[in-house]
C-alpha cells in the first residue's frame, strides 16, 4: 500500500486493527470455514477490520498453523460477488491490480475501461509495483501483453503510463507551462488533423502540479477546457483514456467518485468496477471519494451502495465505505477544493453556445409552404414531410413560411397543423412554429392557468432566460393575454416565491463583471441567511431580502465569485447548503438560479434526464426544453448529458419515446454522440 506523503493526513477508511493477533485471526477464519457451510459474517467482519498489511500476516499464520492457503480456502467456501470482493481484499494491492489487468486482457475481447481506470490513476510507485507483481504472478511481461492486446495511439499511451516515469518535481517552470499550452493548442485546435504524439508526451510525462497549471492556462488562452479539445480532436478508447488521465490529474478522488456513481446508476450494477474501486481505494482516499460523491450527486456513497446491493456483499462494501455522509456537513479539504475549482472553471470558461437547428441553406419559403400544404391536403397527413421541414428550418425561417402560406393559400398554417396532427407531436411542432418569446409566454400562461400551478415550469423559464429574453417574453405575454406577466405571477403565487419570480420577471439582472469586495459582502449575507456564519448580524427579514436581491439581480460573473468566496469563508458549497437549509418552491428557485449560473447547459441536461428516467415520461418538460434550446445551446446540452449520464441524449430519447414524436425529437437533437 502506498504510504501518505510525510505530513499528509490519512484519508483511507480502513485502519490497522488495534491489538492485532494474526494467529488468533487465522484460527477464527479456520473455525468460520470448518464443517458444513461457513460463517460469512465472521469472515467479513475480520477481513474488513484489518489493514492489507495485517491480512498478509494472517495469510502467513494460516499457512503456518494449518498448512493450507487461506485464499484457496476462501475461494472454495465463498461464491459470486462476495467471494470476488473478499479475495480481492486478501491480495496485496499490486497483485490485486495485476489480477484485474490479467482478467481485462484475457480471452476474447478486452476490458478497455478496466485498463484505463488502473493505468490512468496509479502513481509511479504503484505502477512499478504492478509491473513486478504481474511478472511474479504470471511469469509474463505486462508491457508485452498490453501491446499484444491493444493498438494505435491507445496502446502507445498505455505503454507510456506503464513506465511509471511521470515527473514528480513540485517546482514548475512558467515558461514550460506556456510552451506546453502552445504545443497542445497547435497539436489539436490549430492543426488540420491532430498530432496525437504531443498529447501523449505532455499528458503522459509531466508532473501533476505542472499539468494543473497547464490546464488553467489552456482555458485562459483558448477559452475552452482541455477536456473539450480532447473530445473534439481524439476519439474512441484513446479519447476515453486521455480524459481519464486529465480527470486524475485534476482530482483522483473525484475521478473514482464518478466511476462509482456510474457503476451503480440505472438498471443493473457494474459489480466488477464497484469491487475494484472499493478494494483499491479503501486505504488511500476513500474519505475524499465519499465526500466528493455526496457533493456531486447529492446522496452519500453509503446510501447508494445500500440501495444497490444485498446480502454479505452489501455488508462488506458498507464496511469498506466506512460511514454514511447523508447528513450534510462540511467539506473534507479535498472536496472543498474541488467545489472551488468547479466555480473557477465556470468563471473563466468561454464556451461557445451552439444550437442543433440552424438556418437551412438555399431556403425557399414558397417551396416549403407548398410542400406543407400538400402534406396536409386530402385524406391522411404526411407527418414525415411536416417533421422534416419544420425541424430543419430556423425559427426566423418558419415565420417566413407562415407568412408565405397565408399569402398563397389564404389559410393559417398553425390552424391547419392543429387540425392535422395531435398529441405530443402537435405540441412539439406547434411550439417550434411560434416565435420563442411567444412560446415561453404560452408556457408560463399554461403553468399558471387552471387548478394548481406548475411551479417547476415557472422556475425553469424565469431562472434561465437572459434579460433580453425576459423582456421579450413580458411583451409577448402582454400582447397575447392582455395582462402583464408580473400581475399574472402576483395573482397565482405567494410569499417569498412570488417575490423571487417577480424579481426575475423584471429582466433587470446586472450585466457587468465581478466586484471582489462586493462579492465578499454578498457571500457573508449568504452565510448568515443560511445560518452557517460565525457572527450573524442584522434582522432575518432584511437578510432574506438582501439574499434574494443578490441571487436575482447580480450578474452571472459576479455570482460565480460570490459562490467561490462562500466556499472560502464557510467550507460549504452554496447549492448544497440551500438544499439543506431551505425548503419548497423558494429552495427550488434558488437552486435553479445557482445551477444556471454554474452551467446552464448542464442544468437543462439534468432536467431532460429527469424527464425521461423511471416509469413514464414528462413529455411537457421534454418538449419545452427541446423546443426552447434547439437554436441556443442544445449541442452543449448534449455534451453535458453524455458526460454526466454516460449515454447520449439521442439514446435516452430513443429509449423513452416512440412514433412521429420520437422522429421529431431526434431531428431536433441533431445527432448521436
TrEMBL record:
<dbReference type="GO" id="GO:0006816">
    <property type="term" value="P:calcium ion transport"/>
</dbReference>
<dbReference type="GO" id="GO:0042470">
    <property type="term" value="C:melanosome"/>
</dbReference>
<dbReference type="InterPro" id="IPR018252">
    <property type="entry name" value="Annexin_repeat_CS"/>
</dbReference>
<dbReference type="Pfam" id="PF00191">
    <property type="entry name" value="Annexin"/>
</dbReference>
<dbReference type="GO" id="GO:0005886">
    <property type="term" value="C:plasma membrane"/>
</dbReference>
<dbReference type="GO" id="GO:0001786">
    <property type="term" value="F:phosphatidylserine binding"/>
</dbReference>
<keyword id="KW-0677">Repeat</keyword>
<comment type="function">
    <text>May associate with CD21. May regulate the release of Ca(2+) from intracellular stores.</text>
</comment>
<keyword id="KW-0041">Annexin</keyword>
<dbReference type="GO" id="GO:0051283">
    <property type="term" value="P:negative regulation of sequestering of calcium ion"/>
</dbReference>
<dbReference type="InterPro" id="IPR002393">
    <property type="entry name" value="ANX6"/>
</dbReference>
<keyword id="KW-0106">Calcium</keyword>
<dbReference type="GO" id="GO:0005739">
    <property type="term" value="C:mitochondrion"/>
</dbReference>
<dbReference type="GO" id="GO:0005509">
    <property type="term" value="F:calcium ion binding"/>
</dbReference>
<dbReference type="GO" id="GO:0051560">
    <property type="term" value="P:mitochondrial calcium ion homeostasis"/>
</dbReference>
<dbReference type="InterPro" id="IPR001464">
    <property type="entry name" value="Annexin"/>
</dbReference>
<dbReference type="InterPro" id="IPR018502">
    <property type="entry name" value="Annexin_repeat"/>
</dbReference>
<dbReference type="GO" id="GO:0005634">
    <property type="term" value="C:nucleus"/>
</dbReference>
<keyword id="KW-0111">Calcium/phospholipid-binding</keyword>
<keyword id="KW-0597">Phosphoprotein</keyword>
<keyword id="KW-0963">Cytoplasm</keyword>
<dbReference type="InterPro" id="IPR037104">
    <property type="entry name" value="Annexin_sf"/>
</dbReference>
<dbReference type="GO" id="GO:0097190">
    <property type="term" value="P:apoptotic signaling pathway"/>
</dbReference>
<comment type="similarity">
    <text>Belongs to the annexin family.</text>
</comment>
<dbReference type="GO" id="GO:0005544">
    <property type="term" value="F:calcium-dependent phospholipid binding"/>
</dbReference>
<protein>
    <recommendedName>
        <fullName>Annexin</fullName>
    </recommendedName>
</protein>
<keyword id="KW-0007">Acetylation</keyword>
<dbReference type="GO" id="GO:0012506">
    <property type="term" value="C:vesicle membrane"/>
</dbReference>
Amino acid at each position: 500500500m502506498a504510504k501518505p506523503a510525510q505530513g499528509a493526513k490519512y484519508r483511507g477508511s480502513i485502519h490497522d486493527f488495534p491489538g492485532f493477533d494474526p494467529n488468533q485471526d487465522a484460527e477464527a477464519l479456520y473455525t468460520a470455514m470448518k464443517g458444513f457451510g461457513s460463517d460469512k459474517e465472521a469472515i467479513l467482519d475480520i477481513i474488513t477490520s484489518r489493514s492489507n498489511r495485517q491480512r498478509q500476516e494472517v495469510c502467513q499464520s494460516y499457512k503456518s498453523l494449518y498448512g493450507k492457503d487461506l485464499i484457496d480456502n476462501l475461494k472454495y467456501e465463498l461464491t459470486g460477488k462476495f467471494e470476488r470482493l473478499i479475495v480481492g481484499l486478501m491480495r496485496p494491492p499490486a497483485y490485486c491490480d495485476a489480477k484485474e489487468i490479467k482478467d481485462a486482457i484475457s480471452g476474447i475481447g478486452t476490458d478497455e475501461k478496466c485498463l484505463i481506470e488502473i493505468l490512468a490513476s496509479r502513481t509511479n510507485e504503484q505502477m512499478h509495483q504492478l509491473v513486478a507483481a504481474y511478472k511474479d504472478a504470471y511469469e509474463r511481461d505486462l508491457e508485452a501483453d498490453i501491446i499484444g492486446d491493444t493498438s494505435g495511439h491507445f496502446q502507445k499511451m498505455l505503454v507510456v503510463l506503464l513506465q511509471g516515469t511521470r515527473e514528480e518535481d513540485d517546482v514548475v517552470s512558467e515558461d514550460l507551462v506556456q510552451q506546453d499550452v502552445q504545443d497542445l493548442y497547435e497539436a489539436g485546435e490549430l492543426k488540420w488533423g491532430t498530432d496525437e504524439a504531443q498529447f501523449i508526451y505532455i499528458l503522459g510525462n509531466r508532473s501533476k502540479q505542472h499539468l494543473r497549471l497547464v490546464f488553467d492556462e489552456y482555458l485562459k488562452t483558448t477559452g475552452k477546457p482541455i477536456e473539450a479539445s480532447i473530445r473534439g480532436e481524439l476519439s474512441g478508447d484513446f479519447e476515453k483514456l486521455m480524459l481519464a488521465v486529465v480527470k486524475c490529474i485534476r482530482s483522483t478522488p473525484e475521478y473514482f467518485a464518478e466511476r462509482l456513481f456510474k457503476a451503480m446508476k440505472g438498471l443493473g450494477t457494474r459489480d466488477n468496477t464497484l469491487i475494484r474501486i472499493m478494494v483499491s481505494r479503501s486505504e488511500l482516499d476513500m474519505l475524499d471519494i465519499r465526500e466528493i460523491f455526496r457533493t456531486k450527486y447529492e446522496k452519500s456513497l453509503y446510501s447508494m451502495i445500500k440501495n444497490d446491493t444485498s446480502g454479505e456483499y452489501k455488508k462488506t462494501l458498507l464496511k469498506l465505505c466506512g460511514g454514511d455522509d447523508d447528513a450534510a456537513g462540511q467539506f473534507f479539504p479535498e472536496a472543498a477544493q474541488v467545489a472551488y475549482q468547479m466555480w473557477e472553471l465556470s468563471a473563466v470558461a468561454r464556451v461557445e453556445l451552439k444550437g442543433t437547428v440552424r438556418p437551412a441553406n438555399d431556403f425557399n419559403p414558397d417551396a416549403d409552404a407548398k410542400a406543407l400544404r400538400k402534406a396536409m391536403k386530402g385524406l391522411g397527413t404526411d407527418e414525415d414531410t411536416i417533421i422534416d421541414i419544420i425541424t430543419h428550418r430556423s425559427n426566423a425561417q418558419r415565420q417566413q413560411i407562415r407568412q408565405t402560406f397565408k399569402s398563397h393559400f389564404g389559410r393559417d398554417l398553425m390552424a391547419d397543423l392543429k387540425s392535422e396532427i395531435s398529441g405530443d407531436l402537435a405540441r412539439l411542432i406547434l411550439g417550434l412554429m411560434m416565435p420563442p418569446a411567444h412560446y415561453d409566454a404560452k408556457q408560463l400562461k399554461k403553468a399558471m392557468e387552471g387548478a394548481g400551478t406548475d411551479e417547476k415550469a415557472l422556475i425553469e423559464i424565469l431562472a434561465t432566460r437572459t434579460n433580453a429574453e425576459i423582456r421579450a417574453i413580458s411583451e409577448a405575454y402582454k400582447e397575447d393575454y392582455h395582462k402583464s406577466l408580473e400581475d399574472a405571477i402576483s395573482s397565482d403565487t405567494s410569499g417569498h416565491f412570488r417575490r423571487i419570480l417577480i424579481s426575475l420577471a423584471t429582466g433587470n439582472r446586472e450585466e457587468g463583471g465581478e466586484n471582489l469586495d462586493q462579492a465578499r459582502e454578498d457571500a457573508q449575507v449568504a452565510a448568515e441567511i443560511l445560518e452557517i456564519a460565525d457572527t450573524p448580524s442584522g434582522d432575518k427579514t432584511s437578510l432574506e431580502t438582501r439574499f434574494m436581491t443578490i441571487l436575482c439581480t447580480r450578474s452571472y460573473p459576479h455570482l460565480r465569485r460570490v459562490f467561490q468566496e462562500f466556499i472560502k469563508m464557510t467550507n460549504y458549497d452554496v447549492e448544497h447548503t440551500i438544499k439543506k437549509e431551505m425548503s419548497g418552491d423558494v429552495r427550488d428557485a434558488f437552486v435553479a438560479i445557482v445551477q444556471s449560473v454554474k452551467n446552464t447547459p448542464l442544468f437543462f441536461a439534468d432536467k431532460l434526464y429527469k424527464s425521461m428516467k423511471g416509469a413514464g415520461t414528462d413529455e411537457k418538460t421534454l418538449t419545452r426544453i427541446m423546443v426552447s434550446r434547439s437554436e441556443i445551446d442544445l449541442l452543449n446540452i448534449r455534451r453535458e448529458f453524455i458526460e454526466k449520464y454516460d449515454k447520449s441524449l439521442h439514446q435516452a430519447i430513443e429509449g423513452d419515446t416512440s412514433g412521429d414524436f420520437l422522429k421529431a425529437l431526434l431531428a431536433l437533437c441533431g445527432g448521436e454522440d
